Amino acid sequence: MTGIGSFKHSSEFQRIKASVKKVSTETGESISKYYSNLPNNISINNPQDRGNAKRGVVLTRPHQAGETIHEFLPYLEVAETNESIDSTDSKDTLCAHCMKSLSVAGAGIECGDCSGFVKYCCEECMDADLLVHKVECLYLSAFDERERAQISCVERLILRLIICLGQDNNLVSQCRDLTSHHEYYFKFKQENNLVHVSPSQEALFDATESYSLGFLRFFEADLKGLIKLCFIIYVNSTVLQNFYEEPVGIMFDPFFSLINHSCEPNCILVWKGRTASLRALRPIATNEELFVSYCPVFTPKIARQQQLRNSFYFDCTCQMCSTEFDRWFPSKSGLGGMNWDKTGLDGVMIGGSEDEQQSYIELMQELKSVCSSEDMDDVSVLQSISTGIPQLNPEERLMLSNLAYKHVSVVPRQSWPMYKLFLLLKNNTIEDPIANLRFTVLTTDIENSLEHQLDFKVSLGMSFYEICIGILKLIRMQRQGEIDWNLDMLFWSALILALQANKHIVLKYNSNFQPLTQDLKSVVEDLRSLRKVDTVNEADAHVYLEQLSQELGGGVNLAKYCQPLEKEDVAQFNLILESGSVPDDQMYSNFGWLLQI
Ligand SMILES: C[S@@+](CC[C@H](N)C(=O)[O-])C[C@H]1O[C@@H](n2cnc3c(N)ncnc32)[C@H](O)[C@@H]1O
């Protein structure tokens, strides 16, 4: 690695400075020529009907539901290194180049110069990343270890973008005209806090000031350009997910940045390891514009709108946002739903009963009591209800269980607040395998039914590893005499869960939708391969799960969760496997017993 002194005398340093300066001003010209490597089934257009949306992406030929529209390696990716952020059990340290889980892909090589902050799975990955990391490393080395651990992956993505600009003129041309909304920052600064900004925007503006000054000290580049680059990343980067749809970092890609938002998207990005695959969620016609969702679709309407306004600076006018009531708070009749007041948690039921209105209001008030603090403003309250997963104390847990029990008979189980309750209870019952499996089933069932309703694969949030853990923990408890359960019922439900997980996997990863019987066959095959393990012991089960996690694309270490399996456990699996398949009419009707909260 070169030292900072020689870097600052290098031509690379000068190129970066010149590129940042160039990015600071827009050209307003047509950008298509800078995207000449796009496949010919997509093209960039200028939508007329959505205010300042500028460009969008359209299809040049029809696509079927499930069809791959475009596969690409994101231009830039950064794995999350700050362990306190969104940390989930299944997450593992990722290789900074290929993004594979280090415990799956290899022992791990650390970059010595930044004291192991950046890790790789092998020499090849380290070499492949060298061109960017050698400059990144100089930047990171200026911090002590404690400070470095606090550096967010957003800041690192901006840093990597700045470095890449010096190496790629085409990227400079692409970035010049990307939507960034950095003008809001300058307006806020110039008008001396007169412009209304939310607390989260203010926090972002403060972070921008600190990032851009740090970059200014290091690169001595144009400050306006550096600030614009921060906003290019805020507005155009996307969360990087592992197979289980858990956030593991962020990515930026100039092509993906051109796709506009709809709360009823017609395409979705799915991950196969490092490869991003853009898939049609429904049939899309020639000249139809592509839309992804910038926020989780299954979120209350006002929370979605606030998120879009806050982070992307536009008012969504899609169909889901234009309905009179919020579709995620439906009446049991299916003909109406709640319309929430924008400034509080008061709402009126349109086309449903008063009881339903009362239930929804009570549910939201109680969710507010566990998810937000007293001094939050209305925007933050809504955001925290929709995104927060607080730790519940035993009284709160009991309160939420009773609440779910009380209201499930009044409002539909597939409504958003019921889902939120089950999700909170699922996340707060990790120590109680039975309750945990029960709430996993409940959330999964709702996600699954949404998938059918919407023709849209929402984050199922359910995964093979959760099921494996759930089943194996229960088997162990049964064996140790801690529970006395009807194993038939347990395994039957577990198998159905596994079938649903498998269905999700098949839908996501095969380009054609497959009939149910196919899914069924393949999951039974999967479970059979578990049975095939001759000596049933922990190591074999680990090997099986590790193979599975490798097939599924890295980023997760399934084996960590495996519980020892013994012969009699496998015999129980056999019972189910020998019974063949689950009849269709049982697929979605076997959860009654789990509803006894
Ligand atoms: C990732 S960019 C999408 C590409 C952008 N249209 C362009 O031409 O650069 C995100 C920005 O596009 C605009 N945008 C995206 N979806 C929109 C929509 N449904 N309605 C209005 N503006 C939208 C907003 O300004 C948003 O901040």
Automatic annotation (TrEMBL):
Superkingdom per UniProt: Eukaryota
Cellular component, GO, one term: nucleus
Molecular function as annotated in GO: zinc ion binding
Pfam families recorded: SET, zf-MYND
Keywords recorded for this protein, A-Z: Metal-binding, Zinc, Zinc-finger
Domain spans labelled SET: 29-295
Parts forming coiled coils: none
Record's protein name: SET domain-containing protein
Annotated organism of origin: Ogataea philodendri
